[in-house]
Amino acid sequence: MGSGVTYAMFKFLGSAESTDTFSLQDMIGSTGRVSVGIPAHRFGSVLISFAGASHNMTATADAEIAAGSEVKVVAVAGTNLVVAASPMATP
Questions:
Q1: Is 73 exposed, middle or buried (0-12, 13-18, 19+ CB in 10 A)?
Q2: In terms of pLDDT, which residue wins out, 67 or 89?
Q3: Dmax of the chain from CA atoms?
Q4: pLDDT tens for residues 69-82?
Q5: pTM recorded for the entire structure
Q6: Span 8-55, pLDDT tens digits
Q7: Residue 48 confidence (pLDDT)
Q8: SS3 breakdown of the chain: % helix, strand, coil, rounded to 5?
Q9: How many whole angstroms separate alpha carbon 18 and alpha carbon 44?
Q10: If pLDDT is split at 50, 70 and 90, which confidence band does 91 have?
Q11: Quick check: 38 and 44 in contact, CB under 8 A?
Q12: Cα–Cα distance between 38 and 44 in angstroms, integer?
């Protein structure tokens, strides 16, 4: 009886999982914030909210971008994001 209850619980939980996945290509155009500064043509870290979750991703850029800066994902290189600094908002 216990194994039947356990089976039923796992079957229910399995059906509640999302089947939707995303690829890094789907992140192109997203904005995020630099969590670890990105030196020019080197790697840093970017925090992006995407697909209902926060993702801390490795990123690179053509120019140096300081930690805390807002960035936009412009491309994907392997398993890393390529980002560019977002223009500052004008009041």
A1: buried
A2: 67
A3: 66
A4: 999 999 999 999 99
A5: 0.71
A6: 887 777 666 655 577 888 899 999 999 999 999 999 999 998 878 889
A7: 93
A8: 20, 40, 35
A9: 30
A10: very low
A11: yes
A12: 4
Half-sphere exposure of 85 (CA within 13 A, CB side): 15
> Could you tell me if 50 and 73 are in contact, meaning their C-beta atoms sit under 8 angstroms apart?
no
Contact 67, 35 (CB under 8 A): yes
Average pLDDT over residues 85-89: 74
Contact 57, 43 (CB under 8 A): no
In 3D space, the residue among 60, 65, 89 whose CA is nearest the CA of residue 75 turns out to be: 60
Tokens of 36: 């670890």
Tokens 């399995």 correspond to: 14
Distance CA 11, CA 16 (A): 9
CB under 8 Å to 47, separation ≥6 — which residues?
32, 33, 34, 35, 54, 55, 56, 57
Q: What is the dihedral of CA 38, 39, 43, 49, to 10 degrees?
A: 10
